[in-house]
UniProtKB/TrEMBL annotation:
Its EC number is 2.7.13.3. Keywords: ATP-binding, Kinase, Membrane, Nucleotide-binding, Phosphoprotein, Transferase, Transmembrane, Transmembrane helix, Two-component regulatory system. It comes from [Eubacterium] siraeum DSM 15702. This is histidine kinase. It comes from the Bacteria. The chain crosses the membrane at residues 12-32, 38-71, 78-95. It catalyses: ATP + protein L-histidine = ADP + protein N-phospho-L-histidine. GO terms for molecular function: ATP binding; phosphorelay sensor kinase activity; protein dimerization activity. InterPro entries: HATPase_C_sf, Sensor_HK_TwoCompSys, Sig_transdc_His_kin_sub3_dim/P. PANTHER family: NITRATE/NITRITE SENSOR PROTEIN NARX-RELATED, NITRATE_NITRITE SENSOR PROTEIN NARQ. GO terms for cellular component: membrane. Signal peptide: none annotated. Residues 160-225 form the Signal transduction histidine kinase subgroup 3 dimerisation and phosphoacceptor domain.
Amino acid sequence: MNIMNNCDSGDTVLTVLAFSCFALAEYLLSVLKKSDKAAAVCSCVSAFIAFLIYSDNLIFVLCFAVIFAVDKFGAGKYFRHIGAVSVLLVLFIVKPPFIDVLILIIMLVAFTVTHITAGQLIKCREQLAESREETVRLNRRIASLEEYAKTAKKSAAVEERRRFSARIHDKLGHSISGSIILLEAAKLNIRTNPDSAEQCITTVTDNLRSGVDDIRQALREERPDSKTIGISELKEILGEYKAKYNIRTTLEIKGDADRITFRIWNCIKENLVETLTNTLKHSGADEFSLKISVMNKVIRAEFKDNGKGSDSFRKGTGLTAIEERTVLTDGKCIFPAQTDGFSVVNIFSLKEENV
């Protein structure tokens, strides 16, 4: 203190050293030791010492020590209010020069803005870390669900094959086994008793014919109709699209869907894939719907999204392919002009032979 008193800038040197020691202590206790309470005690001690050896320049150390103590003791959302009251109380007690008060106010405003910004950044960082953890958890869950779906689908296929093979065995196994026995008997009697051998062969023929009829009947019963296949394929395509691109999809079918032929189902399916691709590339939509209406003479299929609409557009490769595919299925393709999204309408005629 004697050396600095002999210098013209002694108070300035004292302030800089005090600030440096205060900042270093705060850093070591708050960051390296990760102890907010110890840093708060350090702030209180620094404020007390600055108050005891008060000089004009130490007002900055004093006020900032008080501010840090308020912050470290967990004022939370009341930090600005408590800090302002504390600083006003200090200024009322020590009564510093006006120029020091003005400089102090500017510094405190800058500190407050920085403090708030840092708090928001820390909050954003924590939210980002939580979002990343949530994303990892959801990805793991999705992977688990996909693996479960694959396993369930494979198990269902194995069970279906087992059930079908058992049904074929029940329908045909006994018939074939009996026919083999009868053929062996006919072979033994073909020379000694031709009439008996002929009767055996006739019985075998009837058994095998009946068995073949049973197999055909079983195949007809096991094979799903075009309606079931068509709806299942459309739902699978829309569900996969929704899962991959987070776009809401809906399927609505009105009327007797049994009247839709396999050719029309296949055309609708291929056009659906094409329109979904166009929606993803050009529309910017977050919702897609497919509405199929079976009326008396026609079938109407509308593919619509809620993205960018336009009164005029140029048909590219995808839309041209949709139009050509629809025409080849004896249908008509329409592109209605609208501003609340983009839609494609397919109209297929219902002929008597298709019903």
